[in-house]
Amino acid sequence: MNKFYTLAGTLMLITGSAFSQCNELFISEYVEGSGNDKALEIYNPTAAPIDLSTYSIRRFSNGASDYTAGGIQSLVGTLAALDVHVITNGQTVSQTNSPAVSPDLLALADQPDGAYPAPTYMNGNDAIGLFKGDVMVDLFGKIGEDPGTAWTN
């Protein structure tokens, strides 16, 4: 009988930890198409809406250890529970050697990014951080490392 209670208690602990709730926004999708067809999707896994005004996206360009050269984009609006906020490159007009973002991708945006060097001017070897104030809450890539043309793990 004692073994039964030990087994039942262990199963309850395992089950409880398997369903632990994520309580912070995270980068749920990274899109890097051709030209400036770039986007980031931020997901709210919580049961409550989140004010995005304290969040930002920061790009650590080409292995840099700070985001100065890679730009920062403050987020705007409120993100509903279990919903996503999509940020796309905001370049709507082609410029010399820099094509416009496709209208189809731009139509998916909740928020277009700013002008270069905004975070969505990423090129496959830039680390992208999601920050709440000055605290990083999620990261794509590795800050301070340049993998060459793309991240492999």
Could you characterize what this model shows?
- With 153 residues, this protein is α+β, with helices and mostly antiparallel strands.
- Helices cover 14% and strands 29% of the residues.
- The strands form 3 sheets. Strands 1-2-7-8 form a 4-stranded mixed sheet, with no helix packed on it.
- Strand 9 and strand 10 (135-140) form a beta hairpin.
- The protein is globular and about 45 Å long.
**End-to-end gap:** 47 Å
How many helical elements?
A: 2
Strand ordering within the main sheet: 1-2-7-8
Chain oligomer state: single chain
Portion of residues within helices: 10-25%
Report the strand count. Answer: 10
Reading the helices and strands in chain order gives: HEEEEEEEHEEE
Gist of the model:
With 153 residues, the chain is of the alpha+beta class. The chain has two helices and ten strands, in the order αβββββββαβββ.
Task: Using brief descriptors, characterize the structure shown.
153 residues, globular
Secondary-structure map:
Elements: H1 2-18, E1 26-32, E2 38-43, E3 50-51, E4 55-60, E5 72-74, E6 78-79, E7 84-88, H2 103-107, E8 111-112, E9 127-132, E10 135-140
